[in-house]
TrEMBL record, chains A, B:
Domain Aminoacyl-transfer RNA synthetases class-II family profile: 33-470
Entry GO terms, CC: cytosol
Notes on the domains: Consists of three domains: the N-terminal catalytic domain, the editing domain and the C-terminal anticodon-binding domain.
Protein's UniProt name: Proline--tRNA ligase
Sequence similarity: Belongs to the class-II aminoacyl-tRNA synthetase family. ProS type 1 subfamily.
Species of origin: Pseudoduganella guangdongensis
Subunit (UniProt): Homodimer.
Lineage per the UniProt record: Bacteria, Pseudomonadati, Pseudomonadota, Betaproteobacteria, Burkholderiales
Biological process, per Gene Ontology: prolyl-tRNA aminoacylation
């Protein structure tokens, strides 16, 4: 490609609504252009990257035996009503009426349509397993779209759906997709991590998220550096190590004026925060209006994990108790609650770590007073429920017993789900087995946020000059920057020669023939993030050399003209 | 591709709502699947064809210097309001409100968005000419979607938009696109014709349609076999040849009871239909409610062209006169009207052919009476207006004077427009010229109905067995049909060998390893329309032969195994 035949439009300053670096750099590099809130035109430079992402995804999906089709954007409401998602999805689902007043959804995902396709196409066990995918525009009417392509409303997603006869088959299909995703993200050249995830609203029996590692990532990823264990924060299990020490101190009521927080109590008493107990009062309201009260206990330095809490029996639907409820049930204002003397209707739920504590400090259910030297069994009943209630922290024991946990930040770019029969049962997607007996199809679904990859790749790879694309995703692998091509026949000739050789070698090369000054030209390509650059100048040529510089290099390397192509090929292969 | 790893689903019968052959065959071949009215899932077999269409379009657009980007599907109403199309488009434009109640359009085309992109990107004459295109899903809420992909609601279109500094530049860009389209349809391997078209509602100064020739086509294409002249029926000029003969007969009022139509009059009087005059009474109503009356005259065997009529001064907005208006203005019921004695407020508009007639027969403005021997100038005033009012017919003189016209049927698959400044003026898309003077950009727009190509290609290429794809568009170029691959080691070995050789040669080959009976296997591939087939059977192999059969061939050809690949390559190159 010649730059004069392409469209390059860079900006010195990012628009003020671009809050994060990937959004800023994509706007400045002319990769995207805002059309409306969370809606972007993919400009030629950005589209080139999207196509590279798509090509790698498509190749690996095909290799893994998935079959590409294309499902419509505008989908009849009837199908979404069959699964109940027409009502469940809320305002994120963009709804539209056609000229006849019929309801349609603009697809945010395609479980319903693929299940509809498959229920009419698959009759027999002989036709499965099958895995269909498409790469298609999606729309999710986010409440607060932001961060450019990271949380847009219109975006491109690859979504795949597998159909199997039984759970073992589904798990096999799932494993094939997991491996394909690993291959895809490896080919992208990005540092990534697959973590076990909570299945959440989509239902089903198992799932993993694929995250691009970036310090700016929204999600905390938990992993064990000495084993395979990895999970997101919602799903990472916090295990309690060791056993409870015997009581060593006497229970003592202590004045702790104005110290309602664990941090304040520890400071006041000159003790470790780890010796304090954090008390969280929750109310679970039943459909009939009746209420149940739960006192959750965490170690002072730990944080509540709401997903885990909601899995405690009776807490599926919970909220923080109001101050009025707390006064009524505990006879004390919040800040000084504790398990000592707590009785029905309150159920005490202790985190696993808390259940192993002894000689701890806890609220006295009296304003401005705490107990020190508190012990389970001796000073109060053992907790009614012991459960994993907290977020893990660095240094926790790994649940697989093979080391201690570390935490890093990531950006979710892929998700694989074992759906089971959630959709096939509600939509009657069945097949006949060997005995002509119908059974629901076992499904899996597998998504990759194609356009989101761009944002995530940049969050992981940038510097103060701009983007640093991995070679596999770069809009162009190589840029040729001739110095004064219009003035020097020698520069022109060598540039054209190298350009044609690179094209013939299948290198995705751009020749900057715009006639810009060197400074502006280099700044553009550093901003755009082309990973390999060759400068062709008369002075160098007279010594027989070109100048190569990788995007992360701090200095250029002189390369003999005759060896240039081989040198570049070597760099591209790294 | 191995058929066992692909998804093949054929039907013996087409669904009853498939009215035309391409729709029937695409459904039967498992290429598309109906999701809703005018909305289809592109199944794997159909998507493969779409991708081939897209690839050819993309290559030729890039070669022609157009630059690909991707504009959003969901577009803010504000832009459509700027050009007035938000109101003008009617219910064909699918409108949607987001969660905040803001209005959006699901794009049926992207003039507004590209003009918005360009008005902020293009500042100077130095940045143009530019031509941007995208290949994107479109939605048009057709009143009566039908014919499968031929008139769907959701479809894929390639739309390109050129931006130039002046009319000469725009015409140059237009010519480049015209030539690219010619190259694209040539590469498709389809018989096609480019015809001059009326610009219609989109505005602008010139346009051509590209039609795939098919006897089932909805449009009549007019062309001159001995010259370059070609136009669609709306735009084809009807010229009147020769001069008016002198009056030879006397004007005679003749009783023509119950003969209100030209055909009946000619039959009754025993004369040629070409001697009669067809009278059409039109009313043009002004915005202030005032009415003007026009009597249009055509030769009895000719048909009114409403587009041409609407271009007659005063007839921009017209309708057929009501019977009450006719009685009031002409003093006679319809069926017996004629120009003799007609006076204000009626304006007589004669078709060019009519203006040259003499001794003709026309209504006497009296029920059951006509005049014979009528002549202009002698029996009535010369017509107030002479204009081209009619559709051309086979045998008419070509407007370029280089032969006579022929007519064939076509399916519109592409359209190129000179838009001029219609959009750039309403949206203030200007550039600064050498003198820093702003001027509106001169635009062109260029569309190809990607998914419609499939339907049109089939309408042109099918037989009673199924589709006959041109090699360039076929889902697979070559199918290998082994006979008893699971029983014969020889068949298996030779099949695998040829399959791998074909793959290595870059041939898009499918190996039918499904283990079907030969009859069912052949029927599937004939229905799907793969253009080249090789049968590998044990009996043939023992004689050293494979069997080749082209989709249009009536018999198979024995080909020595050693020559098979070269033979196939030769066929593919034809």
């Amino acid at each position: 490609m010649r730059a004069s035949r392409f469209f390059i439009s860079t900006l010195k300053e990012a628009p003020s609504d671009a809050e994060i670096v990937s959004h800023q750099l994509m706007m400045r590099a002319g990769m995207i252009k805002r059309l409306g809130s969370g809606i972007y035109t993919y400009m030629p430079m950005g589209l080139k990257v999207i196509r590279k992402v798509e090509a790698i995804v498509r190749e690996e999906m095909n290799k893994a035996g998935a079959i590409e089709l294309l499902m419509p954007l505008v989908q009849p409401a009837e199908l979404w009503q069959e699964t109940g998602r027409w009502d469940k999805m809320g305002p994120e689902l963009l709804r539209v009426k056609d000229r006849h007043g019929r309801d349609f959804a603009i697809q945010p995902t395609s479980e319903e349509v693929i299940t509809d396709v498959v229920r009419s196409e698959i009759k027999s066990y002989r036709q499965i397993p099958l895995n269909f995918y498409h790469i298609q525009t999606k729309f999710r009417d986010e409440r607060r779209p932001r961060f450019g392509l990271m949380r847009g409303r219109e975006f491109t997603m690859k979504d795949a759906y597998s159909f199997d006869r039984d759970v073992a088959g589904m798990q096999k299909s799932y494993k094939i997709m997991f491996d394909a995703y690993t291959q895809i993200f490896t080919r992208f050249g990005l540092k990534f991590r697959a973590v076990a995830a909570d299945n959440g609203a989509i239902g089903g029996t198992g799932s993993h998220e694929f995250h691009v590692i970036a310090s700016t990532g929204e999600d905390a990823l938990v992993y064990c550096p000495t084993s395979d264990y990895a999970a997101n924060m919602e799903a990472a299990e916090a295990v309690a190590s060791g056993t409870r020490a015997a009581a060593g101190a006497a229970l003592t009521k202590t004045s702790t004026p104005k110290a309602a927080k664990c941090e304040d109590v520890a400071k006041l008493l000159g003790i470790d925060l780890k010796q304090t107990l954090k008390t969280i009062a929750l109310t679970a309201e039943e459909d009939d209006g009746s209420k149940k009260y739960f006192m959750l206990l965490l170690r002072g330095d730990h944080e509540l994990n709401e997903i885990k809490a909601s899995k405690v029996p009776g807490l599926a639907k919970n909220r923080f108790s109001t101050e009025a409820e707390i006064l009524e049930v505990y006879g004390c204002k919040p800040g000084y609650l504790g398990p000592i003397g707590t009785k029905a209707p309150v159920t005490v739920v202790a985190d696993r770590t808390v259940a192993l504590m002894s000689d701890f400090v806890t609220g006295a259910n009296e304003v401005d007073f705490h107990y020190t030297g508190a012990n389970w069994g001796r000073d109060m009943a053992e907790p009614a429920i012991v459960a994993d209630l907290r977020n893990v922290v660095e240094g926790d024991a790994s649940p697989d017993g093979k080391g201690v946990l570390a935490i890093e930040r990531g950006i979710e770019v892929g998700h694989v789900f074992q759906l089971g029969t959630a959709y096939s049962e509600s939509m009657q997607a069945t097949f006949l087995d060997e005995n002509q007996k119908p059974a629901p199809l076992q499904m899996g679904c597998y998504g990759i946020g194609i356009t989101r990859i761009l944002g995530a790749a940049i969050e992981q790879n940038f510097d103060d000059k701009g983007i640093i694309w991995p070679t596999s995703l770069a809009p162009f692998q190589l840029v040729l920057c001739p110095m004064g091509m219009d003035r020097s026949e020698l520069v022109k000739a060598e540039t054209e020669k190298l350009y044609n050789e690179a094209l013939a070698a299948g290198i995705d090369v751009i020749l900057d023939d715009r006639g810009q000054r060197p400074g502006a030209m280099f700044a553009d390509w550093e901003l755009i993030g082309v990973p390999h650059r060759v400068v062709i100048g008369e002075r160098g040529l007279k010594e027989g050399n070109l100048e190569y510089q990788g995007r992360r290099d701090t200095e250029a390397t002189a390369v003999p003209v005759a060896e240039a192509l081989a040198f570049i090929k070597g760099k591209l292969a790294q």
